[in-house]
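This entry is listed below:
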Amino acid sequence: QTMFLALQDKLALKSLKKSFLFMVAAISDYIPKESFSGKLKKEQLGETWSLELAKNIDILATLNKSEIYAIGFKAEMDKKEAKTNAQNMLKNKNLIFIIGSLIVFVLLAVIYANPVLTGKQLFQHDIVQYKGGAKELLDYRAQNGEETYWSDSMFGGMPTYQMGAQFRGDVIKKIDDVLNFLPKPANYIFLLFSGFFLLGMVVVRNWKYAFLGATFFGLSTYFYIALGAGHNGKIHTVAYFAPLLAGILLVYIRKKYVVGFIVTALFMGLQVAANHPQMTYYLFIALGFLFLSE
């Protein structure tokens, strides 16, 4: 225990900025729960002696690794399970930071759009216009409890799928409702952060760089100008671009075919359901250039 504390203090005081830290093995995973001074004599302990142990502190986990490259080694006796166990250890430690990043994104979104927490609403010109154009649909839904898929209120008559029509059995819409758990417009800000974070984790596979990139992306000025104007559908659709690209890269670059297919299919459905064909059209033009370059 003395050796452990000395090493922990030395590492905490030493400047590790831009350094490589190699941690070969834990000094001890467990330490005696109770310490004694002097020697414990066998005459005092008797024929049997139970030693209670407590879990030791993980030095590597307690260090601030933001300025260093930390490389840990995991000792395993089972050759077949060694790689799997080491990968699980790395995943578990990364998972904490991934969850923490998502919590930070929620806080950033809510702090930026904090007036909505007091019941205030953002005045958006395009949303006011939309409510006027979709009034026939909205009134019919309120009066009859069902949908109409045609409206005479716009362009001399048109289908209502571009005006917010709802469809029974729409699983994608239910998933979208879960992801948009925050009040508007905080929900769109969170989607921008978290979607780009997923793309960053696929591309660079480092939560710190993914978090930094997602923060810069989510705070892009254009998104807030567009939200102020009421371009909710546009931002909603764009927010799903990054995770959709992440799914495509999982398939074609990372060779994670099953996971990549699921992510691609899910976010393809979500961004199409967000219902802004113009932005979807632009996305596929960009993807076309990507595939040609690769």
The longest helix spans residues 79-112. The longest strand covers residues 19-23. The mean pLDDT is 83. The two ends are 54 Å apart (CA to CA).
